[in-house]
Amino acid sequence: KLFNQKIQGIYFWETVRFAVFNNLSRQLVDIGQAHTKRNSWQDKLVAVAGLIINSITKNPFHGKYKVDFLLFDHPRKINVDGKEIDIYTYEFIEANKHRKFDIIEAPYLWRHKTSNVRLNRKYSDNEILQRNLKKNVNPLKIDNNERTRIIQLENKIIKKFGNVKVNLLNITLKTLNNFYYKVNYYKRLFIKRKPKSIYVVVSYTNIPIIAAAKGLGIKVIEFQHGVISDYHFAYNFGEPTKQLQYFPDKLLTFGEYWGKTKGFPKQTEIEVYGFPYLNR
Fold this sequence. Notes:
This protein is α/β, with parallel strands linked by helices. The chain has eight helices and nine strands.
């Protein structure tokens, strides 16, 4: 009953399970690293400078206004006809120009590449900067009972899979610290902007944003961004009737096929939206 358990008031297993899955997969199946990372000191120096500048110039808190919705697009942009765009949300954004909304864009490899940056495109750099400062100055702590439960779970995972290194305690502490400060940041933003709905691409990398929205009764809608099958761990939860706390209310799929995964949560509404980019 891991989905029912809390650490410091957070349903922790939902927040760490995909990281644990990736950790085990790399050891047991040698799947490798999914995406490139930039970790040199030069990259980090440029990243910090960019975070500071963008925190000021593209801060999502600037201005007193309300929106119909907020959209968190995919940070990785693709060059299409000479424009750097998010292929999953570009057509949706173009079709909704008449509505009031902001796009919140996260950096990809510490950079923003979107072409034609409009006034309603904000950056998440301010949140990243604040979160990293706060979690280092005042990290979220767990009590001895919670620590014991995590270690017991780690031992069960090791017993199940054999000679693996999980370090579940470190994964949990790191994840919950990010979760706690990110949720608080976006709750404040949502209270200020008063959106009726939130759109996200890749729910499992935006769990704190989903938690913040659902905690305020705001509907969360996800755009499908790739293949969903019985083997995609982020969309399969074993028993589909499990009640998840941090999963979208609705999934916009490429077609009817994609909503038929066996372990997909029954609590989530499926709507066929299509994939305009692929069609075009």
